[in-house]
Specification:
With 331 residues, the protein is mostly helical. It contains 14 helices and 4 strands. The protein has a domain of 227 residues. α3 packs across α9.
């Protein structure tokens, strides 16, 4: 797809997303909002997995940690301040990602996966086995955050349409940020380290530092998604930090496409919509979902985004996926 066509398609999708609350019921507005939030989390993970070549199983913990920060900083009967709690939640997830990344990135391959899994489980059992924020029962967030200045309420997230537009704004900002990172010299160098670490190191790239920066940025975006998810659900529980959530997000990345910024968002929309349809269709929806996911991965190894060149007749030779590594040689 040429750049003008890509720009037109993105503009059309953005207009459709803006128009959704005015033509759809509240249920569908909240449903798409949830899919956008999980899409943000999947895009955050993909910065590490698809562009960095590192499979992390602790992103659900970073996601849930931000939700707990919101729960712990929300007054019992009054709404929390959006300007105070959102930066605090993102900062908490970023610091956790910095600590985990600084230790986990000293390992490689399966060892990196196991270390991130161990840290994720540590955070899970911390909230599950202690009395912090309700222990295993979780904690309710009775009032959604609000944006207020000098006693005047400017934004009330308790209104579904207002909350949806906040999520959409955050989604557009995340896409812009990740696109800028991936297309920058830093992103090309990160991809070069993914494709050939030994050669990238011989060229003088600071591999550890680059990967740690990417891990922290990924953790910050995961924290943003976790904050929005806790605000939408009005509830946070240790299960949101479990490794199975990280695995589900990884499936979204695989369905959408590893080497694309917005591919994981598409994967999240496909997986969540698929679950919604199957739950209403059969009691064995988990089995059906697993078989469909296996079929998608086998038929479309590059993700469902491969469908567009297949339908439009464009090439699908993987050139875009190889471009970052090629450009990294000139960084």
């Amino acid at each position: 797809m040429t750049k003008p066509h890509r720009f037109i398609l993105m503009a059309v999708l953005l207009v459709a997303a803006i128009a959704l609350p005015f033509v759809a019921s509240t249920y569908y507005v909240q449903f798409i909002g949830k899919a956008f939030i999980m899409g943000m989390l999947a895009m955050a993970l993909n910065l590490v997995v698809g562009h960095g070549g590192l499979v992390s199983l602790c992103h659900a913990a970073l996601f849930g940690l931000a939700g707990y920060v919101l729960a712990l900083t929300t007054p019992k009967y009054d709404p929390a301040s959006l300007l105070l709690t959102l930066p605090l939640a993102v900062l908490a997830s970023s610091v956790a990602a910095l600590v985990i990344g600084a230790l986990a990135l000293r390992t490689r391959g399966i060892y990196f996966i196991m270390v991130t899994l161990a840290f994720g489980e540590m955070l899970f059992f911390f909230f599950h086995d202690t009395k912090v924020a309700g222990g295993s029962d979780g904690a309710f967030i009775n009032t959604k955050p609000e944006l207020a200045l000098f006693g005047t309420r400017l934004l009330d997230l308790d209104k579904p349409v207002a909350f949806y537009f906040v999520v959409l704004t955050c989604l557009v900002a995340v896409i812009a940020l990740l696109t800028m990172i991936v297309r920058s010299p830093f992103g090309h160098a990160l991809a070069a380290a993914r494709d050939n670490e030994r050669r990238a190191r011989s060229l003088g790239f600071p591999i550890f530092r680059m990967r740690l920066i990417a891990f922290v940025i990924s953790g910050a975006v995961a924290g943003l998604a976790g904050y929005l998810a806790a605000a939408q659900f009005g509830f946070i529980a240790p299960q949101m930090l479990g490794w199975h959530v990280s695995a589900t997000i990884l499936v979204m990345v695989l369905i959408g496409g590893l080497r694309s910024v917005t591919g994981p968002l598409l994967g999240a929309l496909v997986l969540i919509a698929l679950e919604e349809v199957l739950k209403a269709t059969t009691d064995y929806w988990k089995l059906a979902e697993g078989l469909i996911i296996i079929g998608i991965v086998l038929a479309l190894p590059g993700g469902v985004r491969q469908l567009w060149p297949m339908v439009s007749g464009g090439r699908n030779d993987g050139t875009p996926a190889d471009a970052p590594a090629a450009k990294a040689r000139h960084v």
